[in-house]
What does this fold into?
Amino acid sequence: MASLRPCLRLSRPKFQPQFSQHIRLRRTFADGPKPPNPRIRESRKGVLFPKTRIAVGIVFIGAMIYSMATEEPQKLDPPSIAERDALAKRESGVTKNSPMRLRMEEFIKEQQKIIVAELEKVDGNKFRVDTWTRENGGGGISCVLQDGNVFEKAGVNISVVYGNLPRPAIEKMRVNHKAIDPDVQSLEYFASGLSMVLHPINPMAPTVHLNYRYFETANADGTSNAWWFGGGTDLTPSYLFDEDAIHFHKTIKEACDKHDKDYYPRFKKWCDQYFSNKHRNETRGVGGIFFDDLDEKEKDQENTFAFAQSCLKAFLPSYLPIINRRKDMPYTEKEKEWQQIRRGRYVEFNLVHDRGTAFGLNSPGARVESILMSLPATASWRYMYEPEKGSREQRLVDVLREPKEWV
It folds into this structure.
């Protein structure tokens, strides 16, 4: 018996695990899934193969550091001149040391307010004021009066434009401006100006046009690459009063003579040639002055800016005495009809020959209403119409076909 006891004790462990496992299986199938062990669940939240993941992370970070050390850093685009100008105006406003772009913009805005205020006194009605902006910088202010007491249509507009010149435009501008780099594919540019056209109701009162502008191309760092001024003013009567033409030209000549005695005769001739309906062999009106592309070849920037300022400031003294003399004169239906025909000639020039109209309409994001503001509200075209010989209408046509020296 003593020899059997060890055997019995040794045999129990052999069968006990199997029996226990059998009992556990039966309990599982009978009672459903056993709740998970919270210790096992917590262990599964840990990192799988932590040493492997650390090794991979070290290799990845090392690759990033190597890439940053060996590759060229990505260059940011420099700010545009529109962004530079906006920042300068916010930080310090416009001073005598500001870029010419900002000084010209401030000057024409100031003159627009003065001119509009004076014209409102003449007409007795207020201008409608529309302020507009461009997505890439700049914008403008359009002041328009329609169906007034004196003016059938009047517009005094300013525009400030920022943009990029494509290669074909650069090549074309280099003809007159050698400072422009011939090798660049595009150039930032800035253009600003004040444009005005007044169409009175009374056919005895003349239409008048004015435009003074500044253009600049910029280098990549925002500095000026090339610049120039342009502009002028001209008188377009339907009925010719010699004293009006003489006063208009005399006032402009005085403004020119302050800066250069050669300016008036030179720019008066240029005006007669430019404001011309060549297809009809007649000028648009009795002239004034016109100039373009005045840059460093002519005079320095400050002197040229001062000249443009004098010309623009001379407008009110040149025109207000004329409109005040003629706005209330009596007229007939036939004389009104002649005014409509002459306005038709005005439209022809603006749509066929005027470079400013063409430039504006071909500019991206052009504001058509402002560009075509210069057109009269009404005009007429009579087939094969000719004025009576010896009439006042014929005398005007004779002068338009052979421009006179008024002063």
Remarks:
- The beta strands are 128-133, 138-146, 151-166, 186-200, 207-218, 224-236, 276-277, 282-283, 287-294.
- Confidence is low (pLDDT under 50) at residues 1-30.
- The chain has 14 helices and nine strands.
